[in-house]
Protein 1
Amino acid sequence: MVKVAILGACGRMGRRLGTLAHQDEHLQVVCAIEREGHEDRGKDYGRALGLADMGVKVGPTLTGHPQVIIDFTTPESTTAWVEQARDNGIALVIGTTGLGDRELDLIRSAAHQIPIVQAPNMSVGVNLLFRLVGQVAKSLGPEYDIEIVEAHHRFKKDAPSGTALGLLSSICDGIGCDARDVAVFGREGKSAERKKGQIGVHAVRVGDTVGEHTVYFGTLGETVTIGHSAHSRDTFVLGALRAARWLEGKAAGLYSMQDVLFGD
C-alpha cells in the first residue's frame, strides 16, 4: 500500500483526491496539507470530506511518513513543496498548471534526487490525445492548417491551458518544428489572415466547464477534428492516483503520464 500526502487537501481537487484515494485499496492517505487560516485546519480529514474519521488531521506540515506527495496547487506552492519533497526523499505527482521556467527548472533539478511525475493534464484520455495529435499532424502534412481550442471554467487562472500547450508541443514534435516559431495565441484585427505553417491556440473561459480540448486539422475540402471532454475532475484525480501507485519503487527521474500509461 502506497502512503500518500495530499496538498491543498480541502480544495476542489484535493477533496476528490482524498475521497477517491480513501476508496483505493492500494493507497493510504496519511497526510492532508492545507493553507493557514483554512476553515478545515485541525479537523479530521475524513470528517472534512464528509466521510468517516481517517485518523489524519488537516494541517500545515508533513506527517505520517508519506511515500508520495500529490500536488494540484499553485506554482508558488509547488516550488516550496518540491524542495520539501527533495529534502525528505519523497516522490511527487505534480498536476499544478501554469508552471513557469523557474518552477520547471526546479522540478528538473529535484528529479535528479527523487522520482517525479509531472504533467499538464493527468487524464488518461488527454494523454492518449497527446500521442495521437503528433501522429496525425505528421501523417496529414503541411497542407493541413492546425488550430487548438480549449475551454475551461471562469475561475481558471492560466491561459492557454497547460494541456493546450502540451498539445502544441506534441504537434511540433510530430512535424519537427519549434513552437516558438509557429504558435499564434488568438487572432484579432483586419490583417489576421492565417499564414502557412501557423498553429493557432485559443482559450475560452465560460461557466463551470471542467475542460474541453479540440484540435482541428483542415485543408480545402475537409477537416479532421480530434477532441477530449472532461465531464468531472475525477478524470484528473484518477490519473494522478494511478501515477502515485506507479511511482512506488521507481528510481529518481522526471517522468510524464506517457511513461505511466505507455512505458515510454
Note: The mean pLDDT is 95.
Protein 2
Amino acid sequence: MDKNYQFFMKADLDGYIGQWIAICNQKIISHGNSIKKVFQEAKEKCPNERPLLTRVPDKETMIF
C-alpha cells in the first residue's frame, strides 16, 4: 500500500474536512477548496514525486 495513502488513512484530518489536500512524503503539503490550486502548489513543492490528491470527507462519509 502506498505510504501517502497509509498516512491519509491514519492522520487526524479534522482541520481539513471538506477541503482538498495534497500529501507527499507522508506530509500534507497543500490544502484548500480548489483542487486546481492544491494541485499546482503540490507540483511546486514536490516536483519529483507523485503526490496523493484527495478531498477530506466529513465524519459521516464511509470510506471503503
Note: Helices lie at 3-10, 35-45.
Protein 3
Amino acid sequence: MNIGVVGLGLIGGSLCKTVRKNTAHRCYGLDRDTAVVEQALRDGAVCGPLKEAQLGDMDLTAVCLHPRQTIAFLQEHAAAFRPGSIVTDVCGVKGAVVSAVEQPLMRAGVRYVGAHPMAGREFSGYAYALDTLFDGASFILTPTEHSDIGAVETLRALALELGFGRVVLATPRQHDETIAFTSQLAHVVSNAYVKSPRLFNQSGFSAGSFQDLTRVAKLDENMWTDLFLLNAGALTEEIDTLIAHLAQYRDALAAQDHDTLRALLRAGRELKEKSLAQER
C-alpha cells in the first residue's frame, strides 16, 4: 500500500519508521515543518514527501495531528482523498473527532475509521520517534455503524504487522470514558502532584514511586489541553471520583483513625490485585 502520514511528530514519525522496518508498504510524509520531512527522508523513514495534492494517490492516510488540527485538516481535505481509500486518525479522544469528520469523509466516498495507538513517551516531536514505540502495545479502533468492515480489517491487519500486541474494538464513547480513567486522569494527577512546594527538596529522597508518578507531568500542554477539553465530561467525573476517595484518606488521617485508614489501603490493594488477575 501507499501510506500517507500527515504530521511527523512522535506518533507520526514512529509510524513511518515502523512501516519501513516491519512492512513492505511505501510511506510518504507531510509536515508543516519541511526540515522534519527532510530529516525523515534522510533517515529513510519515508519514501518521499507527501504534498496535499498527492493525498488522492494514497491507499491509506493516517492523520497524526492534535485533535482540533485533525478535525480541521480532515474537514478541509475530505474531497482530496481518493474515493474508496482508507483514512484514520490517531487522536487520544474519539467522540469529538469522529462526530466532526465521519460524515464529511463519507460524503466524499472515503472509508474512515478512528484509531488510537496506546503508546507514547514523555517527549514529543520527530526527534524522539522510534521504530519500536508500538511493540506489544494496544491499538484501539473505534468503528461506528457507518464504518466499512473491510477498512476495519485492513487497519487491524496493519496494526499487527506493525508490531502492536493486540487490537481492541470500542465505540467512540466507550473509548473516551475508559481513556479518561486510564490515561487522562493519570496526566492530571501527575501534573498536579509536582506542584507541591516540596518538589525542589526531593533530591536524594525520591525513588521509583516518585519517578513513576511524575513521569507524565512532562507533557505537551497544547495537545493535552485539547484532549482534556474534548473529553471534559468523562474526565471531570473521574476527577470528582478521585477527589472523593482522597477525602476519605485525608479524613482518616486527620482523625488518627487506624482502622479506617487500614481498610482504605486494603481495599485499594485488593482492587489492584483483582485487576491484575483479570489481565492474565
Note: The radius of gyration is 21 Å.
